[in-house]
Amino acid sequence: MVRELFEADRQAILSLAYQREREHLFLIGNAESPATFSESRYFGAFEGNALRAVSAWFGRFGSFVAVGEEAAIPSVVDAALIAKVRIESVPMVEPRASLVVQQLRRRGFVPLKEHVSLFLELKRQAFHPQESVVRSAREEDRDALVLLQRILHERASTVPITERERNKISLEGAIVAEEDGHIAATATAGVCSRHFVQAVGVITDPRFRRRGLAAGCMSALCQRCFAEGKEAVLLFTEKKNLAAQALYAKLGFAVIGEFLLAEYPS
């Protein structure tokens, strides 16, 4: 049986996702937030009373993921398509990511782009902190952070900033470095679970590169996460970005797998 899932099913969704906590961090972090859960839609495949697979569409981001048994994933992908959710991206750890993208392709949904990145982990005992002068992000930094995000996604800085872009910026977990009166670099603690935090949006303005600013932001972010009791910080970085890989290795990160981001027409 396949059906849509609701608030009464939330604990079952989380119990399934926690079976592979690292890989399912994005789903866990969003499902554990009441606000994000209410903005999202979930679909589950059951065998008897046992939940075997879940797909999740996060309305705030247009992102779509699926977790659970390999054989049951196609059915929960199809359930989301029948419900006409607007899928803009599939951000998942391999090999489950390819299963979802393949099923979408079978149903006529072909990605515009597919980016394969490295999946990295920093364990508490491997952390090598770096000295830095950074601070927590403030509300007045929001537009500057949008422009840094545009650098990451290779989008024009001259186009007017939209409210949707502003709303996608999370200030709560963001660390920034300032240089010459500008927000020059940033890193953000994104979704988290009981034991892990995902670091996202690690960006340096090209005008201020090679000054150790991103390393400082990341070091401060990791120190904060470990002080809060997390076991490890996770992140993704492009295979061709050797400079970023060197930065993360210096902090103590190690490669543990691959991550796929498939982007679809919005």
TrEMBL record:
Q: Which Pfam families match?
A: Acetyltransf_1
Q: Which PROSITE patterns match?
A: GNAT
State the UniProt keywords alphabetically. Answer: Acyltransferase, Transferase
Q: Where is the N-acetyltransferase domain?
A: 132-266
Q: Name one GO molecular function term.
A: acyltransferase activity, transferring groups other than amino-acyl groups
Record has Transferase as a keyword: yes
Domain of life where this protein originates? Bacteria
Q: Which PANTHER family match?
A: ACETYLTRANSFERASE (PTHR43877:SF1), AMINOALKYLPHOSPHONATE N-ACETYLTRANSFERASE-RELATED-RELATED (PTHR43877)
- For this entry, the protein name equals GCN5-like N-acetyltransferase
Its organism's taxonomic lineage begins at: Bacteria, Candidatus Peregrinibacteriota, Candidatus Peribacteria, Candidatus Peribacterales, Candidatus Peribacteraceae
